[in-house]
Backbone:
């Protein structure tokens, strides 16, 4: 008899997303089932397709617990993901599952299972759950089949991570060490406040840093409420919102406006976003927050247009001025570092980046992106493998070709945001960047860092990649130094990746060393990944 493999599929919390995305998930499961059958196994879904809901996803934590209570805890189990998913729907069941676990994702820009899987992998890593992971474009390639065969036989898949090197084995320049020690001393003495507008966006367990681990860095959470942000936004006068909107348009930012609230971006939606921007700055100022994160997907989506415009502009040094109650401009000429989707790991990274880059005289604007997808360049411009870094709605205009003039705003997809709201979209400018990720593993805070370059691709290739992913969102064409696609997937413990520019390759190397040294000084376990731009090791 074929070896029986149980399969579960975590989905979204929103019926509209689950229903729309189900055909892609079903097609992926068919291809995966064929691959398992070819190797002598048989996939059995642990939960049925629901004809009434028109999908077969686990759509809540409650549902996930009920399903896992009925399955054999010793059985081999595949978590198959073709789309974005909420990790907490299955996390409780996976934490107590004793059989071998394999997370599997498609490799598609349109259906971001790899993004959902990376989020789940990060959550399982933080929870201390043993698992293996695989990914494939069509589930027939040698890499995938070899890994699947190993898992079916042994319950484990091992990936090469020779690109990862502990910072202790790297030659950190004296200047980087000096900057790190100075910033660390200031954080220990003066400390910093991280404003959190409701934790746990979209079930991202991996995005929550336990307070006791955060304390060692000199950062403390101020737990704020999205309801307070909504209430404060309602109190912002119309004239102030209009002033923010006019400022952005005067800078050259384009808003693609229509009149249909259900399907188009409207001026009313943008003005509500401008009110939220003002309110967020004033709350941050009142509570002394150096960084803030807005939950973004849940809660506020039923009350306000999406917070993308707020998030992207906050992360820009040049942004609409807002005064506090005392008449003083809040953080004049500086970003208020915002971590999208309340990803506290990105928030801590953003704080480190801002402090280090300011000390080094480098651009301070930084943002997270989804590690959304990647593919060879179809235009033939480069032979390098080109990643698509694509955040769900906003990046600082300073990162875009042309700045504000190269930045536009489109309505968020109605499937996710019923009340709309404009994005902060652009094409990332060519240049040298540092990428990084803070994560929790083995009960410790850790950080990986690496180097990459952003390249320019022909407009036709950019448009192709946008259409393959989400055309409303900002895009970055990234080439990682010394880290292949499969090495990145094997090591990365999050759906998010933090990026920041430096003026030159040499400057970017120094910024990486300084941020790595700062993290290590504050108790994080740090590794550098890949190589410098010239191929030399760190």
Residues:
């Amino acid at each position: 008899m074929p070896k029986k493999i149980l399969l579960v599929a975590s989905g979204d919390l929103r019926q509209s997303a689950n229903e729309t995305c189900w055909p892609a998930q079903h097609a992926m499961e068919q291809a995966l089932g064929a691959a398992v059958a070819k190797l002598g196994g048989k996939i059995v879904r642990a939960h049925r397709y629901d004809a009434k809901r028109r999908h077969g996803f686990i759509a809540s934590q409650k549902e996930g617990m009920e399903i896992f209570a009925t399955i054999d805890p010793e059985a081999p189990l595949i978590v198959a993901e073709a789309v974005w998913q909420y990790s907490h729907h299955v996390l409780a069941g996976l934490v107590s599952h004793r059989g071998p676990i394999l997370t599997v994702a498609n490799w598609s820009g349109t259906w971001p299972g790899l993004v959902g899987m990376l989020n789940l992998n990060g959550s399982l890593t933080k929870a201390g759950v043993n698992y293996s992971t695989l990914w494939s474009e069509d589930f027939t390639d040698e890499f995938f089949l070899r890994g699947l065969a190993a898992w079916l036989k042994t319950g484990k898949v091992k990936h090469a991570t020779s690109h990862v090197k502990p910072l202790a084995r790297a030659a950190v320049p004296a200047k980087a060490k000096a900057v790190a020690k100075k910033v660390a001393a200031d954080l220990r003495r003066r400390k910093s406040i991280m404003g959190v507008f409701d934790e746990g966006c979209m079930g991202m367990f991996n995005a929550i840093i336990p307070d006791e681990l955060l304390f060692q860095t000199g950062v403390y959470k101020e737990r704020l409420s999205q309801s307070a942000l909504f209430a404060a936004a309602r109190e912002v006068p119309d004239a102030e919102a209009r002033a923010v909107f006019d400022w952005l348009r005067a800078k050259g930012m384009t808003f693609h406006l229509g009149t249909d609230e259900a399907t188009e971006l409207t001026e009313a939606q943008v003005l509500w976003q401008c009110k939220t921007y003002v309110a967020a700055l004033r709350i941050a100022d009142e509570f002394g927050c150096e960084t803030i994160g807005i939950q973004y997907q849940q809660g506020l989506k039923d009350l306000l247009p999406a917070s993308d415009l707020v998030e992207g502009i906050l992360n820009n040094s040049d942004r609409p001025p807002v005064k506090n109650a005392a008449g003083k401009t809040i953080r004049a000429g500086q970003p208020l570092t915002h971590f999208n989707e309340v990803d506290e790991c990105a928030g801590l990274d953003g704080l480190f980046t801002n402090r280090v880059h300011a000390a080094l005289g480098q651009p301070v604007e930084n943002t997270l992106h989804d590690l959304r997808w990647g593919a060879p360049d179809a235009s033939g411009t480069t032979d390098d493998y080109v990643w698509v870094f694509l955040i769900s709605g906003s990046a600082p205009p300073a990162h875009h070709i042309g700045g504000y003039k190269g930045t536009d705003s489109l309505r968020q997809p109605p499937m996710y945001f019923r009340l709309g709201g404009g994005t902060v979209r652009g094409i990332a400018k060519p240049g040298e960047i540092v990428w990084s990720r803070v994560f929790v593993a083995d009960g410790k805070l850790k950080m990986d860092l690496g180097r990459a370059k952003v390249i320019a691709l022909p407009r036709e290739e950019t448009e192709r990649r946008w259409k393959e992913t989400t055309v409303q969102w900002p895009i970055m064409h990234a080439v990682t130094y010394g880290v292949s696609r499969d090495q990145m997937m094997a090591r990365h413990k999050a759906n998010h990746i933090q990026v920041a520019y430096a003026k030159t390759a040499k400057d970017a190397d120094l910024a990486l060393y300084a941020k790595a040294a700062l993290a290590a000084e504050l108790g994080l376990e740090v590794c550098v990944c890949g190589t410098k731009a010239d191929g030399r090791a760190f």
About this structure: The chain is about 35% helix and 20% strand. The CA atoms of residues 135 and 321 lie 45 Å apart.
